[in-house]
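User: Second chain of the day. Same drill as before.
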Amino acid sequence: MSFTTLDEKSINTIRFLAVDAVQKAKSGHPGMPMGSAVMAYTLWTRHLRFNPRNPQWPDRDRFILSAGHGSTLLYSLLHLTGYDLPMEELASFRQWESLTPGHPESHLTPGVEVTTGPLGQGFANGVGMAVAERFLAERFNTGDHKIVDHYIYAIVSDGDLQEGVASEAASYAGTQRLSKLIYLYDDNDISIEGDTDVTFREDVGARFRAYDWNVIGPIDGMSVDAVDAAIAEAKLQNERPTLIICRTVIGYGSPNKAGTASSHGEPLGEEEVALTKQNLNWPQDQRFLIPDDVLENFRGAVERGSSLEAEWRGKLDAYRAAYSDKAVEFERLMRGELPMDWQAGLPTFSPDTKIATRVAGGKVINGIAGTLENLVGGSADLTPSTKTWIDASGRFGWEKGGRNLQFGIREHAMGSIAVGMACHGGVIPYTATFMVFSDYMRPPIRLAAIANARVIFVFTHDSIGLGEDGPTHQPVEHLATLRVIPNLWVIRPADANETAEAWRQAILRSDGPTVIALTRQNLPVLDRSKVAPAGSLSHGAYILKDTTGTPEVILIGTGSEVPLVLDAADQLAAQGIKARVVSMPCWELFERQPQSYRDAVFPPEVRARLAVEAASPMGWHRWVGDQGDIIALDRFGASAPIDVLMKEFGFTVENVVARAKMVLGRGA
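Assistant: Same format as last time:
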């Protein structure tokens, strides 16, 4: 198909919608959309299968703008092709409550598949989408029926490829031979500081061939025909993911800024906008111009998309006739709904035994995996320690239908891949590693929270209780730093039954991610006939054991410290001091409770409160108040056996009792 005048007008329309939006906002990145418009136009009009009238059509191709700073490119395409993104939104780029924020947000804007911006994340998210596509295809497709058969496309930048997470994800994608991935690399040799020759001189093609990718190019990324042919070639590949290296010109068309860093992250300026429009034969006196023939050209996507979806729904009807139960299951999974009986497999643990919550977590996973058949996950080469293997299933990528993902030692990519899986839909992903390595995963955890993505992040070895490995592996500040992330639930269960409840809440949650923090060391299974039921975890904090009348002091614990405060409360009672014990596994769930419930747990008149947690004290002052106290860690841990560590750092019954009495003003 040859390059036509209409093609050129359409591409320039994309460019100048982006330029005008950035100029009006006086903020943004015009250069990338100007240089990438040819790639995007070719992909969206000749290859991408989507339906603007139904952005959630299950078998649509997914498109990711990993270079999310060029968001006006995506917003222009969404408006032009008929998504529910009116021109007023483009004109409100980067403004309060607009649907066109500075970087794409999947929960906000119709047609945006993942929340991108931090470079490398979209690249890795796409790998997760390809994982989800393959898992669902293996589960539901048959020899005669393919109801899951779509590609994941992305435009990635020099910046994406420089970030370490992209290297991790690319290595994993090549190893797994995720052939439904097709990435267009916007190779323009420019970053914010200037020419990439000073920072990025590697042979990208050789690097990706070493990852076992199919590499096409370099090609002329400013040629519709070249890009079209390359994508067509990539779609013939069924063994490896594909990287198409597209040579482009950032800020294309700008007489003074094309090919320079100055077009990357700031508006062109009114004078340069006028010169650029003149240079590309575009009317200079109009903003947000869409010629009628161009709009007609793009809006053909509406009819084409409806036709594509109708054709697919015909396939789904035929599939339903042959496999009615599987069709019902497929549609339920894609709606994000849970099976009615999924909770039946949640185990109940008997008291008077000891079990590490990481071990209990593994039993929970295996208990629910039979009915929750889209629960898919794994660890960063730590499954024997995190206990997160689904025993009845095989290895993803190596055994058909396998649900155990072996991410390798790639924590950052693991988190980002899981976010991509969640945004794809149809699966409930979980990840697992030691809590100290949550530092490596903070970017995807944060983006999952922004995007309302249901991902379950399991972190074991959650305190100094892991012992001899020492401070490099003992998380101290991590609970606090995770708790400050908005829309993230952090649950630290006190025993095996609270662990089952933590998983219940994480699965039931559909509007964001959950962290479950678990112990290496064994903990007693609490006798729920003597203390409150573990189901009370759903309130975030609850009265585990109470005293008669109004308590004099409230002891608060999480995780492995709850048995400790229970024992301390018994000793205080023996001394005639009324102590209430509160288990507080999830601050965020507690914050959602009505004030009346929170006051019932922490009566305002009871000012003597003592929190005990083997982690940083940051944040606990909110709950203990200015007359309360905290037994916590304000330093790093040490290498020693767990019993020694707990004694040396004050996590003993004797110290809890003494500090409680000090809070009450009764000395030691």
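The CA atoms of residues 212 and 465 lie 41 Å apart.

User: Great, on to the next one.
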